[in-house]
Amino acid sequence: MASRIDETDRKILAELQNDAAQSLDEIARKIGSSKTPVWNRIKRMKEDGVITRQTVLLDAEALGLEACFFVLIRTSEHEADWQEKFLHALQARPEVLEAHRLAGDIDYILKVRVANARAYDTFYQALISEVRIFNVTALLSMEEIKSTTILAV
Fold first, then answer.
1. Predicted confidence (pLDDT) per residue in 40-98, tens digit
2. pLDDT digits (tens, 9 = 90+) for 129-142
3. How many CB atoms lie within 10 A of CB 43?
4. Which of 3, 70, 85, 130 could form a disulfide with 48 if both were Cys (CB 3.0 to 4.6 A apart)?
5. Candidates 3.30.70.360, 3.30.750.24, 3.30.365.10, 3.30.70.920; CATH matching 61-140
6. Nearest to residue 136, comparing CAs of 125, 147, 146?
7. Where does the secretion signal sit in this chain (predicted)?
8. Strands 96-101 and 135-140
9. What's the pTM value of the predicted model, to 2 decimals?
């Protein structure tokens, strides 16, 4: 069930998504409120699960992780024990930034960030040694056109 949020909450969320390091005073000034009501609203949205965590965003290329692969996985295994093993393998791999179970011909898609093709192959070999996978297709992203964590609120 979606949490009830009003226009003021939306303004606060927009400010936090833009820069969560801003002070409460800065946010309050920008949205035309005061510090205590802003703090109370943020606290409530955390309790309601609207705000799940605060973090920093890093530049992958600046850290030497220059290759982004989208990995399409098809499996002939759909039993609960296989899925548990597969999900555990993904959770244990820091290279996997995102993993989605899909409807259609492809069962899963992964977003994998690594230094280069050799590092991807190391990731791939480790993954297939842990779980049986019917088919894997890796697509190298040539250019990131848009990437954001900001949700339209």
1. 999 999 999 999 999 999 999 999 999 999 999 999 988 999 999 999 999 999 999 99
2. 999 999 999 999 99
3. 11
4. 3
5. 3.30.70.920
6. 125
7. none
8. unpaired
9. 0.87
Q: Which burial class, exposed, middle or buried, applies to 92 when counting CB atoms under 10 A from its CB (0-12, 13-18, 19+)?
A: exposed
Give me the residue label for tokens 């799940």: 52
Per domain, the residue ranges of the chain are 7-47, 61-140
Class of domain 7-47: mainly alpha
151: nearest Cα among 42, 10, 29, 44: 10
Contact 11, 18 (CB under 8 A): no
DSSP secondary structure string, 86-108? HHHHHHT-TTEEEEEE-SSS--E
